[in-house]
Specification:
Order of helices and strands: HHHHHHEHHEH
Largest sheet: 2 strands, parallel
Shape: globular
Strand content: under 5%
Length: 235
Amino acid sequence: MAFLQSGQGREPFLRAPVSVLSLIGALVAAHLARMLMTAAASERILTEYAFIPLRYSPGVLEPGSAIDRAVPFVSYMFLHADWTHLSINCLWLLAFGSVVARRFGAASFLLFFLICGVASVAIHLAFNWQSPGAVIGASGAISGLMAAGIRMLNVPALARGAPRLAPILSPQVLVFSLLWVLINLGFGLSGLSVGGEVQLIAWQAHLGGYFTGLLLAGPFDRWTRKSDGEQPFAA
């Protein structure tokens, strides 16, 4: 799995940046804290901090303040259905997040993660405006990291003057994107991504996060290099 190695020295992907390990630690801590709560308290956390599209439909649910409505766009990423759900997300975050963090740096990596996560659930909201299902999990944001990571294949992470990211229409990006679309359409048509009272992050959110990451990887890369004093690549 050479694409999960950095360009310089071909270091193993498990030698992860601190920013990635810290984010994984935050996800684990949030889940552990909720598991230690009583059932009633855990349910209250889901009600208040999971993303529920119905909350944004006027006159359907008590919407709360502007802050009450804004917080779930971020907080849902730190809630997971169970340890299996969390473990899978953490493994993907470790793999692709490490690639992106080495290229972007810690602050830009975390901002990129949050933007992809917010865009992910906003796309879900657009397709499920009055759904009462609670959306949880960081997989939409991680899909954005995956898209950025695919564009960084065989690209040196930190070297000055490093080549720009693979074009969106390059074969490696097109093939992977097609596979990811087909996989998620399969989930959507089969309903395998939904179960019980709380659904794992929906397939529309996966794709929303993925294509957000695909489109924003280039601008983020130019921005981070410009902030480091490097000549930005032409668009």
